[in-house]
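Same chain as my last thread, 608 residues:
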Amino acid sequence: MKRLLLVSLALVVAISLTGCFPAGKSGKSAAQDDIEPSGSEEEVYLLYPQLMLLSRKLDEAEAYYKLGNLDYSLSLSEDLIIDIEEFKSTDPDPFVCDHLDMLEQSAIVLNNHIEDEELENEWRDLMTAVIDSIGQNHVVEEEIEIVLNWRTEHWLRYFQGKGRRHFTRWLERVEMYRDIIEPILIEQELPRDLLFLAVIESGLNLHARSSVKATGPWQFMAGTGRLFGLRINWWIDERKDIVAATYAASNYLKYLHGLFGRWDLALAGYNCGEYRVAGAISRQKTEDYWMLRLPSQTKWFVPKFMAALTIGRDPAAFGFKIRKVEPVTFDQVTIDRSTDLKHISRGANCTITRLKDLNPALKRWATPPNMEIDLKVPYGTADDVLAVLASIPPGERVSWHRHKVKKGESLSRISSKYEISQSELKRINNIKNAHKIREGTILLIPVKDSGQVASATSKPKYRESPKLPSKIKVKKYSAPKGQTKVVYTVKDGDTLSEIAERYHVGLSKARKWNNLRYNSTIHPGQSIVIYLPSGSSTQVAGSSGNNADPKNMDGKKKVYHTVRKGETLSAISRQYSTRVSDILAWNGSIKKDLVYPGDKLMIWVESD
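reply #2:
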């Protein structure tokens, strides 16, 4: 929290020294305000690539937060705030300041979320010792084991009932993409059953996008996607590429299975992050997925996968009739420079719409510049496409110039300046009305290519496994010297606060010692660890340890009190000048504050 306060203070000082204020405060003129673009966020990113880099850093910080790695997420977020302030110190245009302010506010909100979560569960204080990886060098089974229980049966009933229409469409897509996904899973030494993970994630909809912006058939967040080699920028989003995303998901799943050695835990990690699953295993001292207390969505996620897999193995047995669909087939051609899709469609003898359907990762009308991509073309047309591309003279190849519309400029004037037809300029920039182009809008203008491929060409990396830790570190509490460990067995009706009070220890310490979150519950039979100073006289029935017996208390004598009608523990404690917590500690059979007439209580009082 101190670190966040220092960062916030630094922001106030830094902002006061920069030029990111409205005209009249920063020294910017009204003329500078007139050039503020009114285009989309993507156009601003084209004009100022630094903003794109800052936005990517925010995506990465949010991805690590979702994965449960709060430490690294906080570090990235704080670095981002510092980078933003450095950018502001360059006195950029006002509209750039607006974008910087939005990014900065998002980073501050993320910091607050991280701080709140740390305060609730003391996450980083619990991350010290190591959960050894389970199942290293395991042999992949041919099939994933299915557990049929009430959660799995719930999804089976849903898919056969209210969800039948959607699930039928999903099964049809399985037949469309099976021949693409399964060979990759086999190549990566993974069970083919994992195909149905994509089914429940997105329904195998390549354009799927969740409310939290997870995208594509395997539902990658932007930061996680980039971590596993997927390229995401203004030109392309490889999360929507069925081949690239499947390789990235395979690498992630191999990593998760290597950590946990079980597919149910690996799938849970895919849903809520491996750090959260590892933390739950550490706190709850079990590796049984069905026994772990995980987020509600994750508790239902694995049963949903198992239900989908059960039906997918034999749809007819569950009453599903799948119409015959043609599997998706294509050839791939490697393109290493920006190429208009109209040239490629001419070589493939298909429409641009057909090309876009095969390549949903492409976000524009051309392949991206300075990037090597494996473009999908209709099956059997790869040689024709390559021949057409080879026949394009260097002078007809294009690269792209970004033009910022100035005040008073018209589309006809811009097209004349760059010697391009208005219709072509409208097509490239998706302009509907030539008379409504706005000042500040960014237009992409095709210019002659030099014919040379840039040396910094980005190559596909989705087949490569990122360097990730082979073990997850989860901190556990180790008692300092001079303390004795006491283990208390929870009884029906016990609460953690009452147990802490009986032992005269703080509730936050009791949570820390037992790896419990703020909202965690305890159950009868559960073992609660308490650390007391060596030689402490406190002892509670149901505990074990080296506590001194209360009967050996110096200067005190033992008396017995018979509870009378209408008496309460509070009244009895006042009568003997002692505390309710002491009476509860001396009489471990009492549950909470429930005493009845005739009960005999042992009480230690001062000797006369």
